[in-house]
Design goal:
The chain is α/β, with parallel strands linked by helices. The chain has two domains: 2-332, Alpha-Beta Barrel (TIM Barrel), CATH 3.20.20.80; 337-443, Immunoglobulin-like (Sandwich), CATH 2.60.40. Helix content is 29%, strand content 22%. The chain is built from twelve helices and 19 strands. It has helices spanning 5-14, 59-67, 82-95, 104-107, 119-129, 149-162, 179-182, 187-197, 217-234, 256-268, 314-332, 440-443; strands at residues 45-49, 72-74, 98-99, 139-142, 169-172, 203-206, 238-243, 246-247, 273-277, 301-302, 337-345, 348-352, 358-364, 367-374, 377-384, 391-397, 403-409, 423-426, 431-437. The strands form four sheets. An eight-stranded parallel β-sheet has the order 3-2-1-9-7-6-5-4.
Length: 449
């Protein structure tokens, strides 16, 4: 998350180091997850960064996180020690959540200047967390420069030798970072280098498109295209951190349609994790102690799902509503290959691969169509590519003999027996998931998942 880069740099300075089925949003209906049986790279998950600060970390607050439809929390917000993270994990376990802790002991090894591994420190870190039922993995670096990839590979390998079940977590810059920040000439080289050098089992990056006066939609889609292509080649899933707050003089607070638009278009591109930044609005200094002689960290965050005092904002309800659809659709796509993604404007194909099952048409058919395949079956995620206007369109079924049915959509009041060949309307940012079933003679020869 780009907004946390300064925080991590300051934390390193403190240490003297240079730089599967539907999950209910109601925690009472959820079972405590088992990271050993369901590793993150085999799931669809909803993540949030920034949990309650230490003084507000209670069972009720963690149930509130689960109520929003969140599966995994990155506590941060002043929680950086083993004692603090283990308390967060205990609370998370009671709410059916998992935790990705940010631990200072990891940060100390994620530096280009660090050439050796402190085995005793890593051993204690792994011993602290690996057997906790709510432990998802360790967050070892946010937005690394390419020069850090060799160090991160060494750190990842050593952690996996001690605990092979929990993939260390790294989050990458977006394309609007500078070449100096990336350490490469362009974003695709940066992503490719990470996959080639670090070899993670899942890739995460962030992108905050909703600026104060403009939405950077073109780069949003081009980054999704690059990350999708690179991770498909590496045969690993990807996550994307999306915007659920504002940053003064830079980012605006998203409205409901913008919350939906980010999540649903990413899902159409095959994202296996939607990560909200942030849940609890960070303080200006993000709970980092001021270092004498250095400029203070004064990023003015505002309007996240909970404000700085822990009061819910409208964004909490927007995200909770979006997560209902994400849970249904995202988990329905586990095990399905995101084979084609196509972007349409006014019913005309702009870019991407045409779905072999359906094609949309109509003057207001501004859409992203992701086609997911399993054997001779298809599931089609259609997302409105606009956060401002509804999309009106019709669908033409291409594959002869296939029956297309509605599985789920963002507007929950619409009946599922909608005539697929009839007219459709998607609200701004809305989406729907269809399934194409082969003819009975072909379907009978295929085993249903």
């Amino acid at each position: 998350m780009q907004m946390n880069l300064k925080m991590l740099l300051m934390l390193l300075t403190i240490l003297g180091v240079s730089m599967a089925g539907f999950a209910s949003a109601n925690p009472s209906d959820r079972e405590a997850p088992s990271p050993r049986k369901t590793p993150l790279w085999d799931e669809f998950v909803i993540v949030a960064h920034g949990g309650p600060p230490p003084e507000a970390a209670t069972a009720a607050r963690y149930r509130e996180i689960a109520d929003a439809g969140i599966d995994v929390i990155i506590p941060a917000n002043g929680i950086y020690t083993a004692e603090q993270n283990l308390k967060a994990m205990d609370l998370a376990q009671g709410a059916g959540l998992r935790v990705i802790p940010m631990d200072l002991r990891c940060f100390a090894h994620a530096s280009a200047e660090v050439r050796s591994i402190d085995e005793a420190t890593l051993e204690s870190l792994v011993a602290d967390y690996r057997n906790h039922p709510a432990f998802a993995c360790c967050f070892i670096k946010d937005e690394p420069n390419k020069t850090l990839f060799p160090s991160l590979r060494r750190l990842r390998d050593r952690l996996l030798e001690k605990d092979h079940e929990h993939e260390p977590f790294i989050n990458l810059f977006p394309s609007y970072a500078s070449p100096a920040q990336l350490g490469t000439a362009n974003f695709q080289d940066y992503v490719h280098s990470c996959l080639e050098i670090v070899r993670p089992r899942l890739l995460a990056y962030d992108f905050y498109p909703l600026r104060e006066k403009v939405t950077v939609a073109a780069k949003w889609f081009s980054d999704l295209t690059i990350v999708r292509e690179e991770t498909r080649s590496a045969e690993i899933p990807f996550w994307v951190f999306v915007q659920s707050q504002g940053l003064k003089d830079y980012l605006r607070v998203p409205n409901r349609a913008e919350v939906f638009w980010q999540a649903n278009t990413a899902l159409a591109y095959g994202a296996r994790g939607i990560c909200w930044f942030s849940y609890w609005t960070p303080l200006a200094n993000q709970e980092v102690h001021q270092i004498e002689g250095e400029a203070p960290l004064l990023e003015q965050h505002y309007g996240a799902m909970l404000d700085v005092n822990g009061v819910r904002t409208p964004v909490y309800d927007y995200v909770r509503e979006a997560n209902v659809f994400l849970h249904h659709a995202g988990r329905a796509l586990i095990g399905w290959d995101n084979s084609f993604v196509a972007c349409y404007q006014g019913g005309k194909l702009l870019e991407g691969g045409v779905s072999p099952t359906v094609t949309p048409f109509g003057e207001d058919a501004n859409l992203v169509v992701g086609t997911f395949r399993k054997k001779n079956r298809s599931r089609i995620l259609i997302a409105n590519s606009s956060w401002e206007n509804p999309a009106h369109f019709r669908l033409e079924t291409i594959a002869e003999g296939q029956v297309v049915r509605l599985l789920t959509r963002t507007e929950t009041n619409v009946e599922k027996n909608h005539d697929v060949s009839g007219s459709w309307t998607l609200e701004p940012g809305g989406a729907l998931l269809l399934e194409a079933i082969p003819p009975p003679s072909s379907a009978s020869r295929q085993s249903a998942p």
